[in-house]
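Hey, weird one. I pasted the tripeptidyl-peptidase II sequence into the form twice and got a warning about non-standard characters only the second time. First submission, copied straight from the form history:
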Amino acid sequence: METEVTQSSLFLSQNPTFDGRGAVIAVLDTGIDPGAPGMQTTTTGEVKLIELIDCSGSGDVDMSTTLEPSLMTVTTLSPSASDSSDETPPPKTIKTVKGLTGRTLVIPDSWPVPSSGKYRVGWKQASQGLFPREVLNQTGKKRKEDAEKANNTLLTQALTALSTHESLHPKLSQENPEHQPLLAARADLQTQIELLKDYIKDWKDPGLVFDVISFEETEGSGKWWVAVDVSCSGDLEKTVLLEPYSVGKKYASFGEDSKLNYGVNVLDSGDLVSIVVPSGSHGTHVAAIAAAHFPDASSPGANGVAPGAQLISLMIGDGRFGSGETSQSLVRAAIELARLKPDVVNISYGEYAGTYDYGRFTELIKDVVINENNTLFVSSAGNAGPILSSLSHPAGNSGVITVGAYVSKQMQQDMYAMLSTVRDGHFSFTSQGPTLDGAVGVDIYAPGAAITSVPEYTKDFNKLMNGTSMACPNAAGCVSLLVSALKQSDIKYTAYRVGNALRTTSKQFGDAFSVGLVQVVDAWEELKKGESLRQCLDVLYDINVQGLNRGRGIYLREVSETTTAHNLSISIKPVFSNTKNPATATHQLAFDAHVTLTPSESWITAPEFVRIPNGGRDFAVRVDPRELAPGLHYGYIKGVVDGVGECFRVPVTVCKTEKEGGKEGEEGVRRFTDLQFDSGVVRRRYLDVPLGANFATITIKSKQRLGNSLFMIQFGQLNQQTPVDEYDSRWRVQMSNTDSGVENDDFKWSKTIKVVQGKVAELLLCQNWSALDPTTISCEVEFHGLELTASSNPAASFLTRAGGDRISLTTGNSTFTRCDLTSRLRNESIAAVSVVLNGLLKTIRPTEASISIARRGRDVLPDGRQLFQLVLGYTFKVAEEGHVTPLYPNSLNGIYDSVFESVLFMIYDDKQALQSSHHAKVNKVKLKEGTYTARMQIVSPDILTLEKFKSTPLLVNFDLKKSITLTSYKTLAGAITGSGPTFDKTSLKRGEGATFWLSAAGSDDIPKHAQTGDVLTGKFKVTDSSSDSNIDLFTASYLVPPSEPKKDATPTDAATPILSKPEAEKKPEDEDVEQKLKEEERDLQIGYIKKLPAGEKRDALIAKLDEQWKTHVPFLVAKLEATVSDYEKLLKADGGEKGVTGAAVDALGKACDSVLDGSVIDLTALAVYLGLKVDLAAGGDAAKSKKKEMDAQKAAVVLALVWKARLAKNAILVSTEEKEKVETLFDEALVQLSQWLATTDGKYVNLWAWRLKYKGSTANALKVVNKFLGDSKNISTDGEKGAIYKELVSLKQTLVEALGWTVWQKYEEQWAFLKAPPSMVLF
């Protein structure tokens, strides 16, 4: 741990008790492992980790299910009895509850007894954000190894049995009837071997699913206990009963093999249990840097910077998103910070955002945590540098202490074992300011690497990590030393004052923005200044530059900004800490700062003096960048209070574009030669991207280099209110050895990127800090510009056609699109243009929209306002397996600058199984064919705002299995005929244009599941694929037109000419009306047959209908379905495992016979018809009517045959005599059924598999079932198809159990649970 360069080790040697004791550091990260080395106690013996909280929700368990225990008597072996003893084991009564996973949970006698007598149960899947990926991989590997061992034993048994069978029966003949049972037995053994091989080959880890149980010891007391069945056995003696961590400060582990430690919390009056598990190793490492304490360490260097400090773990890294933070986790962390009031906060996390001092999390931190609670908030700068404006939020926001990563010579020797050291300085990757609104960005630097503790599950005692993530806790530790000193010295302070002291006393080392390395001793001396000086130092000076790009500093970057002088008004207003405190009013009244203003550079002019009252003051400044040389220029206006020292700086950043470097006679080329580099050297070039440019090629050649060297190459442009990564490209490139001293292609690197015209770009080249020896390179940037416009609107003129980088190809009413392509900057090689459409975009409106209270207690803002949640539900179908991307409005996409407290999105299948989770970072998910439910949660304290989003549409993009290519033609005539000359590969001179016509998508090409109004999406192929400039410049969208009418369809009213006279309506004859009324009455009565329960009313209705309609097929089907219902009720009542008898069985048999006896349906004629190929179009209405009639007859026959076979199966079960006869009847029924129903149909498969099992061929039965279940077309939860699928899943489990394959029985049970969980998982 590097502590010398920051003076923290010197500070502790001078002040041993100022070691962080009395200070509390909250760490917002992936969570802290309470079992990790150094995380147990402070230097004074206090508990190190005082709170363990999951703010992400990834460990949440729904505990709303309440159960009373059941008593069960079991026999146990007496402790005094030996295995051979005849002593009868004593009976024992145990308490159990049925867990939601289906396991029986045995409650230990040692547990406290809840006064209510009730327990709460829930379930949690390890892979749904609970376990870190590393542990999932470890445990998954172990489970597969265990399965392989168990399967090996089963295979050995099966192979042995087969070998024995072959030895006992060496000569079996298919011709000998007596050999048939033996042959069947042998075949079943062979199938067992085949199935066991398939099981392990197709292994897919179901992971771990835990039962969770909780109870309140005394009702209403709030004293809760929680247990997680970590053994997944139901034996709760094997787990640890825990109190909430905040109460008991205890934790447990998911097992010695995983070493994954966890704590628990109980929320929402017991309805929610939070299992707190680290989502990664990052947070523990960060915490150890800040405050680890090793009481027995031989070297004091093992301790963290502030070993006396206590820690709070606020986990913002959501395991469902790869430990990324969400707006939900951040806001919940801010709520906890407001409640717990730590002294220091460390956040080594961050994401890009387009604005500063904005967003729910940022506002809560700025206004409540820092200002009201006086908490020092320390943030990492980010690791996206050294390009400018690369900070990741929350870095750079007002009041936040932003930390960059520093590397010293001592660190290079101790941690990196370098061949030779380089100069002290910042790590090359450190993100840089200024912020988009001109603030300097980074406040201080601190050592950005450490070797220290990581979670126990990594199986490592410590690990080297580097980054601003490591610099931040080093600085936070330094801050904690100062807080410890201030508290023990009884010196009052504000977070603003400490931050100012850190900045003004930092040690300069040559940073481009004059940001220095934190110095603890010097900062302490600054903070010890007298009480009289507090007036001007205890505030934050809020800087607001009026006019050009309003912000907290002056940032001139665009050409229009750097080629003119600026007279600007600057407002500076003191922000007082905790204005709710009455004592602050006295401070405000007395505030009067006499400030001397000193510009650091000659091109900045400011008044000599300004007097700032508590209401603030405006003053004018002048910035004249016109004569500045190309490159980066930084200056500032320093505000110094007489006798006190520096209290603020107004930063001024100017990025002046290059005037030199263009190729003679060529526009849009910048070339830089003989660029010299050494370790850590940065070269910046600012380029004016020409108007008309939309892509550029960067080429680098190495001229002189000994060995390999890592270079960082970045190219970025900025746009207001846009995250900087939107226009930022970056690469890490290994420059290889070149020693010719002459520029050539020995090492050449080239990339083509999209650019934004008219925006200044920064080209950054940096030799990594640890890359030794000098390098000489050249760099060329060549800008290109292609303009594409398109129009398919027949009424559009040239001036109204669409352009830009997103091209709309059709309005839905035109078949061909005219496109005009123009080269704006130089000669360009153009491809044989085409459009490839590979996505289908659908717009879906919500089917559910409900507003309710979010979690009580947990989701309440610091000002007492309860948060509400809007839950939107969407239903969509996936027609073909593939990748699906959900898209929602940009207004819901923020994280740090989100206007909502939370936005989460989840996709479930039709059995409630979670398929994917999403937040602001939308990602693709692969889905199988089927119906899905998507649910979106939006959280806010403002119900009226939520009301506005109730009808928010969801866009879903489906990747197409088969892309659609639109061909380009030189002429419209060629496009119409499809045989004209195509638009081939060509070249365009500067300013030259070309016109081509795109064909329409054929009706056969458009996916069947595409509907009118959907949009096909894809991209243009424009640039020559043989060049380096083969990038996607233009995206394409194609509106799906109305589908073509079928050839035999009747023309719609819309197709009828408006002036055509409608035919006179044919007047029906009276007898037709009478007949129609009779048929409608009949159909209504038939519909009631199934609705009525068995009894006199239903019998009377059937008898009445039978008089007149006994040959009507729907009537026969209705009678059959009614008797089926009666039979199924009888099965359900008696269990059905041994068959049933009674009137319902006989009635069902008669109903089947009435369909099959030939009196109504001529089976031979039906079979003949079904074997014919009927031309419906030629046959007209009569042919269609006939087909409808025959389809109905076939459905009735199949239904009757299925139930006839099921009755034959029932007869086998109830038969005590003449077994052979009833078995023959069952076989005959199956044969007859197979003539009308495909043997792959689930109804047939169910019966056939039962027959195989009954005959002793259990493995073959399982093989048949596996084949059906393995076909994605059979997966369903809807109607009869879903019921059959569910039956076969259950049958599969029964078959595996019958084979005695315990390992695979459990495997099937786990997957059955996961595929159809009892409830949807929580947001």
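That's the output from the first submission. The warning seems to come from a hidden character in my clipboard, not from the data itself. The longest strand covers residues 828-844.
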